[in-house]
Design brief:
Elements lengths: L7 H17 L3 H43 L3 H5 L7 H13 L8 E10 L5 E12 L10 E11 L5
Antiparallel strand pairs: 1-2, 2-3
Helix pairs in contact: 2-4
């Protein structure tokens, strides 16, 4: 009877397959790296848009608060009423927004000195608009996105 010997061909075939598979994984690393870089760029751009939106909202709130505090008509205040002087409110809002250090593409789109607050009291409302710029989006031709923020503050009663 003939003794069974191990055939070297299956072992050789297995070694060849392992070598070929190990080399094919190298092509996945650059693709994975590019995906991670793209996701990072998107995260940076979205964070930048959120930051610029927050800055615009803070400026709108500050301008509305300044206008509500200092824009009250003095004659009405002495009479015990609270109403805003439109010319005074406009000047105060423009001064406040100019002092906020916003980008040049930000502008005042609406000032409402006769607004009503959610509690039903007289208020001043200021709406600012701007364009949040992308950092990495410019690579694919996207310069930015339009943003808007509104701030409302109740008129001060002088106390």
């Amino acid at each position: 009877m003939r003794a069974l010997s191990a055939d070297p061909r299956p072992q050789q075939r297995q070694a060849d397959t392992t070598t070929r598979q190990r080399g094919s994984v190298m092509f996945l690393y650059p693709v994975g790296f590019l995906i991670v870089i793209m996701l990072g760029a998107i995260a940076v751009d979205l964070s930048n848009v959120w930051l610029q939106q927050r800055q615009l909202a803070d400026a709108a709130d500050a301008a509305a608060n300044d206008a509500a505090t200092y824009g009250v008509a003095p004659a009405d205040l002495r009479a015990g009423e609270r109403s805003a002087d439109p010319a005074r409110v406009t000047d105060i809002v423009q001064t406040s927004v100019a002092g906020q250090g916003l980008p040049d593409n930000s502008r005042i789109s609406a000032i409402n000195p006769a607004a009503i607050s959610p509690s039903g009291n007289p208020a001043v409302s200021v709406t600012l608009t701007g364009n949040a710029t992308f950092i990495f989006g410019q690579i694919v031709g996207r310069d930015g996105i339009a943003i808007q923020a509104t701030g409302t503050a109740e008129l001060s009663d002088g106390s």
